[in-house]
Amino acid sequence: MLTDSRAAEQARRNLFSIALPTDGRIVIALSGGSDSTALLVLAREVFSARGARDRMLAITVDHGLRSEAADEARRCGELCASLGIAHAVRRWEGEKPAKAVQAAAREARYGLLAEAAGDGIVLTGHTMDDQLETVAMRQARGAGRGLSGIAPATLYEKRTWFVRPLLTCRRADLRAQLSKEGMSWIEDPSNRDTRFERVRIRMAMRENDTLSDAAIRENFNLRRAESEQAAALLRDERRWRFDADSRAAEHVPGDDGAGPGTGLALAVVASWVGQCPNLPARDIIGRMIAFCEGAGKGERLTVSGCLLERRADHVRFRRESRNRRETGYGYDHLLPSPDFAVAQALCERAVGMSYPVPPVSGYPD
Questions:
Q1: pLDDT tens per residue, range 118-172
Q2: pTM of the predicted model, to two decimals?
Q3: Which positions make up the binding site?
Q4: b/e string for 38-73 if b means 16 or more Cβ within 10 A?
Q5: Domain that holds residue 173
Q6: Binding residues for ATP
Q7: Are 194 and 62 found together in one domain?
């Protein structure tokens, strides 16, 4: 048991606050590193108290990229056996890509963990350190909405929620507590490999750490508020009409111009119609707003595989006839919890369905 640690207390509160599904497993993503080891120990304590320990299953993903992986998976199994927690190994099979291997490994990991969870949930050990590094990387690219950081929860393939209860915990605090309890962990050598952007960012932040949890939390709240504003607009049947069969939409712009959430509402509809995995960039969204407000009858604009055409009293959204994407709508693949409101509104209006409700509310304490 991890006892007298502020980080441990934060994690406990976050774990107790998770709304568990009625059925299904509680999967713990266990690499054997300090973060996932701390998560495993804390989750065992909390879910034992909640009467859900028997539903816990630790999964170690062997990506087949390092010779040490099999031994690390064995050590994870030994740890779980000592704690009385079920454990299994899932392997990433098949040929590995020559480029962007980390992104491909992450996608494979999502799929393997979600498959193990089924209708349950997956818990991962992302910490505040991971959060700050992620925001720093996105900041370097000028990402706007991405500055809200890693979401507290993400819905994978419209079915499985991935929850991150350690987002407000510092890695050093968790490691100090593990050491105090006499527990060890596995050090991943890739965490020191400067070929990876995250490692370079981590090293730079040791010298100049200007990001704060408070700023990330504020950006999260702003992103969620924008999502709720856009959702309210999409639910207005006077302003939006949808045709699921032809994957099209019609928008009647208001006389009072673009208000809060307008840009996001236009962006998610264009992405849904065009089957685009990502939302348009900020400047493109600005062009969409200007088009809807000022375009003349018959004028057209193409965005994200979606053709916008100005009609007499509305703007028609339909798929491009050529160069059609088949990659799929992004929120159907990965839906961050702060975007849930707008994604849910579009899903209900456009196809008459709903996403599973997030198991956590807001940003963790």
A1: 999 999 999 998 898 888 777 766 656 656 689 999 999 999 999 999 999 999 9
A2: 0.91
A3: 31-36
A4: bbbbbbbbbbeeeeebebbbbbbbbbeeeeebeebb
A5: 6-126+164-211
A6: 31-36
A7: yes
